[in-house]
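MODEL INPUT / OUTPUT PAIR
PAIR INDEX: 1
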Amino acid sequence: MTVIAVLNHRQLAMLRAVAGGRAEITCSCEPDLYVDGLPCCDQGSARELVQTGLLRAAPPGASGRRVTAALTDLGRAALH
């Protein structure tokens, strides 16, 4: 697992949206993030946040299914 050294403003906003319960994520090896029901404008950053262990799908789901996004412990720490 790689950790992002510095998060940009957009990545922090994504993490805040997840923390606020406003985000969903698709169950996939290349997950897509949705905020307030709309696709995130920077899916590359969203995928990087998942791959570096900052956010995840809250409940497991079938491939392609959209589920609630959740912060990991590392993601919560990044916001503080």
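PAIR INDEX: 2
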Amino acid sequence: MKTLPLRLAPGADLRRALEAALAEHGAEAGFVLQGIGSLQPAVLRLAGAETTVAPEGSVELLTLAGSVAPGASHLHASVSDAAGRVLGGHLGYGAIVLTTAEVLLVLLPDWAFSREPDTATGYAELVVRRR
């Protein structure tokens, strides 16, 4: 296990940047332990929904956690707006860093993550393999 603290710059697509950081370090599996920052827009898929939502304006990224894999990440985020309302769900592509995102990424060099169809759930679920 190797920790990789990151500060992502304005304009970065949060999810794509995390997957790129994983690849840059030759890893195929990782976890976000925590992330904070600001986004505009935030792109979230809410529980049970098929499509994403993007709250208007800038939001604070309160929490970020989940698995990271090449093109197969599963990240949950909670964000708050200027009125303090909190919204959470699956982080989608297109969530853009506004001023900063500070993320602690853990690389798992001995493992590879992928997503494959699971007949029990009907979704593409995490598959863990030793490298």
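PAIR 2 NOTE: Residues 2-130 form a domain with the 60s Ribosomal Protein L30; Chain: A; fold (CATH 3.30.1330.80).
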